[in-house]
UniProtKB/TrEMBL annotation:
Lineage: Bacteria, Pseudomonadati, Thermodesulfobacteriota, Desulfuromonadia, Desulfuromonadales
Recorded name of the encoding gene: pepA
Co-factor requirement: Mn(2+)
Cytosol aminopeptidase domain sequence ranges: 346-353
Matching Gene3D superfamilies: Leucine Aminopeptidase, subunit E, domain 1, Zn peptidases
CDD domains: Peptidase_M17
Cofactor, how bound (note): Binds 2 manganese ions per subunit.
The protein's name: Probable cytosol aminopeptidase
UniProt xrefs under InterPro entries: Leucine_aapep/pepB (IPR011356), Macro_dom-like (IPR043472), Peptidase_M17_C (IPR000819), Peptidase_M17_leu_NH2_pept (IPR023042), Peptidase_M17_N (IPR008283)
Reactions mediated catalytically: Release of an N-terminal amino acid, Xaa-|-Yaa-, in which Xaa is preferably Leu, but may be other amino acids including Pro although not Arg or Lys, and Yaa may be Pro. Amino acid amides and methyl esters are also readily hydrolyzed, but rates on arylamides are exceedingly low; Release of an N-terminal amino acid, preferentially leucine, but not glutamic or aspartic acids
Organism the protein comes from: Syntrophotalea acetylenivorans
Chief place where the protein resides: cytoplasm
């Protein structure tokens, strides 16, 4: 979608459709009164007939006449002003896309709010609405044949500011949303790629392409380098597949010599469960088990496009978990990069094994904090459903910061405890620890396992198993990969600058 920001009068804007957001207590705003007058009272009649009241996501389409340059006026309800949040505006953007698609419109104009609503800054509101528009318009159709019956994607958006002095700020907000959404869309695309395409080498090549585009440093460790580093846990998971493993390391330097934030993302490009084979039902969805890694790559891209004044290290251990004659077996013992031995009781608990080595590798960068993201446990879906990620870690301040960033970005997370008692479930009789702690508190014991390898720095773990993938689309989140975490992390990094 091409987006232009211009200055002009709403009633003189020639467009197939002019879109406005309307709060329930702003039905008599000056612009709406002008539109109502130009349409001979059509809006007043619709409100009197209770066809439109401005309730959240309610819509009203009015057709223009000779007094209006716009062919149509589409009003999107926002609810009561006191209840409007940035998430309200993202959903309004998604509602806009759905309405336009139903009418097969590909070109439209939108007038952002020109004054704060419920204390929200105008730039933030504009950015949130554009996020909703762009992300709702996303489709993964690289492998589909063209179909004229399919609703077309949006081609052109004109953002109209009626006051000249607002144009520069609106332009800034729109470009920020575009850069942020680039990262989310990259993450979605990578998650949605099929398993026959998405090898660890493919993931490394995508990282190298990102680095070349926006000026990141990229290092890719192959099997020989991983053996030299002693990454026995990662290599143990990888040994069942003919596809070679990789450890992807990206650097973004936006803050001189400051200590970096390290982002670590699980990159299991396909997870069959290994010898502990998963059920066949929905195994096709296990192409998304690298969503944590995709989020890290998307965040690195967005941070570079936004020119955030921070230093970042992105680390993605990329493997495929397959059953074969060379695969690890339940009962095998692996030696991690940290030197700790791990009794593997379930080969389907592989994500924590590759993250153990990645978290150890992160220590060499002297990070000020480390955040890992992983589709780690089905237990997280049981606990929180598909509405929030679980967040755990060793620093309550960092966990609270992530929760606040989640509320603002619309990518919520909820803290679970990580008490010492949970680590008792991981004690092994034959090794330093085992890779599962039994059925009770599965999300927590998985984090407790990771904590063994994250003791030397401030650390948070995000279990995104329930939020990284949707079977059915909703709002601005499509079916398939959601790109969850990119907007959350960018919001967290931005807040850390204040």
């Amino acid at each position: 979608m091409n987006i232009n920001v211009i200055h002009g009068a709403a009633l003189k804007q020639a467009t197939p459709c002019l879109v406005l957001g309307v709060a329930t207590d702003q039905l008599t705003a000056p612009l709406l009164q002008k539109i109502d007058k130009a349409l001979d009272g059509a809006l007043s009649r619709a409100t009197s007939a209770q066809e439109f009241s401005g309730e959240a996501q309610q819509t009203l389409l009015l057709h223009g006449n000779r007094q209006l340059a716009a062919e149509r006026i589409l009003l999107i309800g926002l609810g009561k002003e006191k209840d409007i949040t940035l998430e309200t505006l993202r959903k309004a953007g998604a509602t806009t896309i759905n309405q336009l698609r139903q009418r097969r419109l590909t070109d439209f104009s939108w007038i952002p709010a020109d004054s704060p609503l419920h204390g929200l800054e105008v730039e933030a509101m504009t950015s949130a609405w554009v996020e909703g528009l762009i992300l709702a318009d996303y489709r993964f159709e690289q492998y589909r044949s063209p179909d004229p019956k399919r609703s077309p994607s949006l081609q052109q958006l004109t953002v109209l500011t009626e006051r000249k002095k607002e144009q520069a700020a609106t332009e800034t907000a729109v470009r920020r949303a575009e850069s942020l959404c680039r990262g989310v869309i990259l993450s979605r695309d990578l998650v949605n790629e099929p398993g026959n395409v998405k090898s660890p080498i493919f993931l490394a090549e995508q990282a190298q392409a990102i680095a070349a585009e926006v000026g990141l440093e990229c290092t890719v460790l192959d099997r020989q380098a991983l053996e030299k580093e002693g990454c026995g846990a990662l290599l143990g998971v990888a040994q069942g597949s003919v596809r070679e493993p990789r450890l992807i390391v990206l650097h973004y330097r936006g803050a001189g010599d400051e200590r970096p934030v390290a982002l670590v993302g699980k990159g299991v490009v396909f997870d069959s469960g290994g010898i502990s084979l998963k059920p066949g039902e929905k195994m096709d969805q296990m192409k998304m088990d690298m969503a944590g890694g995709a989020t890290v790559l998307g965040t690195m891209l967005a941070a570079a496009l936004l020119k955030l004044p921070v230093n970042l290290v992105g680390i993605v251990p990329a493997v495929e978990n397959m059953p074969s004659g060379s695969a690890i077996r339940p009962g095998d013992i692996l030696t991690s990069m940290a030197g700790r031995t791990i009794e593997v009781l379930n080969t389907d608990a592989e994500g924590r094994l590759i993250l153990a080595d990645a978290l150890t590798y992160a220590k060499r960068f002297n990070p000020r904090e480390v955040i890992d993201l992983a589709t780690l446990t089905g237990a997280c879906i049981i606990a929180l459903g598909h509405h929030a990620a679980a967040v755990l870690g060793n620093h309550n301040g960092l966990l609270r910061q992530l929760q606040k960033a989640g509320e603002t970005s619309g990518e919520r997370c909820w803290q679970l405890p990580l008490w010492d008692e949970y680590a008792e479930q991981l004690k092994s009789e034959v090794a330093d620890l085992k890779n599962i702690g039994g059925r009770p508190a599965g999300t927590i014991t998985a984090a407790a396992f990771l904590q063994h390898f994250a003791k030397d720095y401030r650390w948070a773990h995000l279990d995104i198993a329930g939020t990284a993938w949707q079977e059915k689309g909703s709002d601005y989140r499509p079916a398939g990969g959601t790109g969850f975490g990119v907007r959350l992390l960018i919001e967290h990094l931005t807040r850390s600058l204040d």
